[in-house]
Amino acid sequence: MEKALNAQMTQEAWQAQVYLSYGAWAEGAHYAGTSDFLYKHAHEEREHMFKILKYILNRGGKVKVDAIQAAPADPKDLGDCLKKLLQHEVENSKLIDHLADLAHKERDWATLNFAQWFVKEQVEEETLVNNLLDLYVLATTKKDGNVNLYELDRDIAKASQEATIPQEEKF
Ligand SMILES: [Fe+2]
Ligand SMILES: [Fe+2]
């Protein structure tokens, strides 16, 4: 279990490198908003890494800070960037599932509980990137009548309403 947690810790560090490198690509490609989002998310992935580091130590384990593999090649364009990020998140979700699976097999209930925070987090991360991909599709789809669907969608979101959407409690 200790080995698997260390491997996931390194994996989260790599995820941070992915977001960092895509952020640098986006800034170079004049997407200031996107690069800002990606840099911030790189920090979030570092926080995931740190969360695992603290957990290993809190449980009396040994942390092994390992080499991180190189960041992937630059994406071709913004759509490619978002698609690849989604792939990275889906891949990471699978690794988290393996971690939870191993904890269950070893009857390590503390680590199973710990891994479940990440299971939930991955659902959020996949949803986040999926939503950005939806916006990209709207923004790049040409429609008759010269309607910019991206701006329309943004305006719809801002339209005043009485009701609020139930949000899951953050803890
Ligand atoms: Fe993460
Ligand atoms: Fe992530």
Task: Give a brief description.
The chain has helices spanning 2-28, 32-58, 78-105, 109-140, 149-158. It is mostly helical and 171 residues long.
Characterize the structure shown:
The protein is mostly helical and 171 residues long. It has one domain (2-158): Ferritin, core subunit, four-helix bundle (Ferritin, Up-down Bundle), CATH 1.20.1260.10. Helix content is 73%, strand content 0%. The protein has five helices and no strands. The chain has helices at residues 2-28, 32-58, 78-105, 109-140, 149-158. The longest helix has 32 residues, at 109-140. The protein is globular. Bound molecules: fe (ii) ion (FE2) (2 copies).
Task: Please tag this protein with its features.
single chain, mainly alpha, Ferritin, 5 helices
Give the SSE order as H and E letters: HHHHH
Major sheet summary line:
none
Secondary-structure class: mainly alpha
Hetero groups:
fe (ii) ion
The N- to C-terminal Cα distance equals: 25 Å
Shape: globular
The overall average pLDDT, rounded, is: 91
Can you lay out the helices and strands and say which pair or pack?
Layout: H1 2-28, H2 32-58, H3 78-105, H4 109-140, H5 149-158
Helix pairs in contact: 1-2, 1-3, 3-4, 4-5
